[in-house]
Amino acid sequence: MNGIDQFAPGQSPLPLYVQIRDSLRRKILEGSYAIHERLPSENEMMVAFGVSRITIRQALRDLHNEGLVFSAQGKGTYVSKPKAVQNVQRLQGFGEAMAAQGYEATARLLSIRECKPAKAVAAALHTHSGEDVVEVKRVRYLNREAVCLESSYFPLDIGRPLFSRDLSGDIFPLLENLFGIPLGHAEIGLDATLADDETQDLLGLKVGEAILRVERLTHNRSGRPIDFEYLCYRGDSFKYQFRVDRK
């Protein structure tokens, strides 16, 4: 019915709501349901799967939590635009994190230059008064869709060698493998802000559309700050995921 996979309860040891959730997830990810397409109603799924409304709602709740569907009051449940997820339990570049999930991640260099840093950048990198930094501006693409405007700042001794390098991928592997700089840890801050004109144009956003802005300060293994970044993501395409434990 309406493209729903039907199955006989009891054929799998998994709970029924998990089987239904996995069936719907598979169809969404395979494209059987298009972005913003309305899913079958709860009543239709109850008949197709032969289960209770509670079971259907359990399955849909999990899909909501995964960001795969959203509900419109009185209208039903619809397919969301899938978001790429970066888990920040590990220090990874965008490309490293996305490749592990099967995405194609690339970058387009907009500019690389030496410049006077803004106060926030100078303070983060502990540069001396009046000292220049190297600024690298790029657009990051996920499956060939622009999802992030990236502005990265490096001390001169680290940034200058980047002028002669291919910057279409992650910079972290360049720092580690080519320059011999072992990475240690990063401090991350998140906020939501309105996209400026440049970000709107490069990411194809509407006027006044919000973005997820990430500030990331990366240190080498000895604790020196070596890379300060502003990462401006499309809010409909990307999310950061954390795990926190109560000690």
Commentary on this structure:
The strands form 3 sheets. The chain has a 6-stranded antiparallel β-sheet with strand order 4-5-6-9-8-7. Strands 1-2 form a two-stranded antiparallel ribbon. A two-stranded parallel sheet has the order 3-10. The chain is built from 8 helices and 10 strands. α1 packs across α3 and α2 packs across α3. It is 27% helix and 33% strand. The radius of gyration is 22 Å and the shape is elongated. The relative contact order is 0.12. β1 and β2 form a beta hairpin. It is α+β, with helices and mostly antiparallel strands. It folds into 2 domains: 64 residues, Winged helix-like DNA-binding domain superfamily/Winged helix DNA-binding domain (Arc Repressor Mutant, subunit A, Orthogonal Bundle); 158 residues, Chorismate lyase.
